Automatic annotation (TrEMBL):
SMART domains: EGF, EGF_CA. Keywords: ATP-binding, Disulfide bond, EGF-like domain, Glycoprotein, Kinase, Nucleotide-binding, Repeat, Serine/threonine-protein kinase, Signal, Transferase. Residues 155-187 form the EGF-like domain. It comes from Perilla frutescens var. hirtella (Perilla citriodora). InterPro entries: EGF, EGF-like_Ca-bd_dom, EGF-type_Asp/Asn_hydroxyl_site, EGF_Ca-bd_CS, Kinase-like_dom_sf, NOTCH1_EGF-like, Prot_kinase_dom, Ser-Thr/Tyr_kinase_cat_dom. This is Uncharacterized protein. Disulfide bonds join 159-169.
């Protein structure tokens, strides 16, 4: 889609594709060969009959002079001058600057079609085009490059490029942090208060007050100012101590060695602003530990988030907690992503992406009986495959050489987005706090591996058992997680295994699975659930095998 103006930016083509035609670099989504451009409207023809070769739009045949990834294109359009000069044979190239956009739909629609969504970089954002149709991709603030490529938006090292700090500069993904050296105070920034000796501000105030009234006014003002300054120093020192205890310095060191991790570190004051002083409506995520608050990031998109207050992490587990934060900040289709954290408070605060309204969970989808929210057999199998994919991804990762175990899988911990894609929520550090305990909340017991009750330890096969209970919920439409359920009803998983072995599965299957479901697919899911619920952990399949089986069943439908 094309119209008018102009701007320059860094350019890159798809790997393996020709990058230049003559003197012009051709960036993706434009391209000159098959599979090198986004669609036909971005196809460039390189005419080598000119010396040097010249690029032309395949649609319209206009010569391309320059390309900007901000949605601007400069072309030479050959126009007849008849009616202007009165000479039919006179032609000349008229320079024009035109505007282009990707696709024909707005951002909120384009994001739902992942296979055709053009903003590929995880550090990019989508902006609706000003010409009325389509959208433009931009790199997030603090990044530069080509947002249409998977690794196209690269972190800007502000410390090296602009040296913005008077004190110590630490580059962070998408931003930077300034610190003053020991013995000085301030924000450390050249465009801020900079760094100055700790007592400088007090002396400055004293010198100003001296002429006004050294015998009366000065002592009062000085005493008040000193008391306030001392309180601020104590508060700042206390926050620095908490930041250190909660793993802040370790996190900064690890982030400085990773260029493609976007994890924001917020101050306590920023968190108060994000959560509106923690007064907003609570977001409840069923069986997850911690307190939950809705929040809004102070960015240009006013992004909605969930802020989780977790218990303090034991010092022996701090490095594993930090590794979990970094791991959970990486984007994955079936995990709720961590956007940032605050570590200078008594209990760490973790900021998560908010999907949908934040209250639509797998639990609520199973329980709902409203016709407009019908949860079909196909949707259930696809949701199960998504959960398995997310758990398998978690289990395949090691944090500080320890296997990542979720330890708290339940249907109320699985968020559903607007396209009913399942996203597992994990409260970072929760299984580190609970490590070594023999019991957790009563509402979680039905999902707990019997081996955990016996031995008090969690492992990957514990996640398999919990996932098996979720499969039972999907098959039966039952609500295993419910504080009001009678104690004998908490045996749903055991009853399921008993009836499945006796060939009486039809007695407890949900009507959606019987009426609309594919009999063979339902039987296969039931067999898989039964194998996940084996009492002996060694007899259960691992999550990779569970994921592969469910992916095959999704493809069968």
């Amino acid at each position: 889609m094309l119209f008018a103006s102009f701007i320059h930016t860094e350019l890159r083509s798809l790997p393996g594709c020709p990058q230049k035609c003559g003197n012009l670099t051709i960036p993706f989504p434009f391209g000159m060969e098959s599979n090198c451009y986004f669609d036909d409207s971005f196809h460039i023809i390189c005419n080598s009959s000119f010396k040097p070769p010249k690029p032309f739009l395949r649609l319209g045949r206009a010569e391309v002079v320059s390309i900007s990834l901000d949605g601007k294109l400069e072309i030479l359009n050959t126009s007849s001058m008849v009616g202007i000069l009165g000479k039919r044979e006179d032609h000349q190239s008229v320079p024009m600057v035109v505007e282009w956009a990707t696709g024909s739909v707005a951002c909120h629609v384009a994001r739902n079609n992942a296979s055709r969504y053009a903003c590929q970089s995880p550090h990019s954002r989508c902006k609706d085009s000003s010409i009325g149709q389509g959208y433009i991709c931009h790199c997030l603030p603090g990044y530069k490059g080509n947002p249409y490529l998977l690794d196209g938006c690269q972190d800007i090292d502000e410390c090296a490029v602009s040296n913005p700090c008077q004190g110590v500069c630490i580059n962070l993904p998408g931003s930077f942090k300034c610190y003053c050296p020991k013995g000085s105070v301030g924000d450390g920034r050249k465009d801020g208060t900079g760094c100055h000796p700790e007592d400088e501000s007090i002396l400055r105030s004293a010198y100003l007050c001296f002429p006004i009234g050294i015998f009366f006014v000065a002592p009062v003002l000085a005493t008040t100012w000193i008391a306030w300054t001392e309180r601020q120093k104590k508060l700042e020192k206390h926050r620095e101590e908490l930041f250190q205890q909660n793993g802040g310095n370790l996190l900064l060191r690890k982030l400085s060695r990773r260029r493609n991790t976007q994890l924001n570190i917020y101050t306590a004051e920023e968190m108060k602003a994000i959560t509106n002083s923690y007064n907003t409506r609570n977001v409840m995520l069923g069986c997850s530990p911690g307190d939950f608050y809705r929040g809004t990031l102070l960015d240009h998109n006013s992004t909605e988030v969930v802020v989780v207050i977790v218990e303090r992490i034991p010092q022996s587990e701090i490095e594993q907690f930090v590794d979990q934060l970094i791991f959970l900040s990486q984007p994955h289709n079936n995990l709720v992503r961590v956007r940032g954290c605050c570590l200078e408070t008594q209990s760490p605060l973790i900021v998560y992406e908010l999907h949908g309204d934040g209250n639509t969970t797998l639990f609520s989808c199973i329980r709902s009986r409203a016709p407009e929210t019908r949860f079909s057999c196909g949707m259930r199998v696809r949701a199960a495959a998504g959960v398995a994919r997310g758990v398998a991804y978690l289990n395949s990762h090691k944090c500080n050489r320890a296997t990542f175990v979720h330890g708290n899988i339940c249907s109320a911990n699985i968020l559903m987005d607007s396209s009913y894609e399942a996203k597992i929520f994990y409260a970072a550090g929760s299984n580190l706090i609970a490590r070594g305990t023999s019991s957790l909340g009563q509402e979680n017991c039905v999902y707990r591996d019997p081996e955990f009750t016996r031995a008090g330890c969690l492992n990957k096969r514990s996640d398999v058992y919990s996932f098996g209970v979720v499969l039972v919920e999907l098959l039966t439409g039952g609500t295993v997680f419910s504080p009001n359920r009678r104690e004998n009803d908490r045996r749903m998983a055991l009853d399921f295994v008993y009836l499945a072995k006796g060939g009486r599965l039809h007695q407890i299957l949900d009507a959606e699975m019987i009426d609309e479901g594919d009999g063979e697919v339902v039987r296969e899911v039931a067999v898989l659930a039964e194998s996940c619920l084996k009492v002996e952990p060694g007899e259960r399949p691992n999550m990779k095998k569970v994921e592969a089986k469910l992916t095959t069943l999704v493809q069968m439908r």
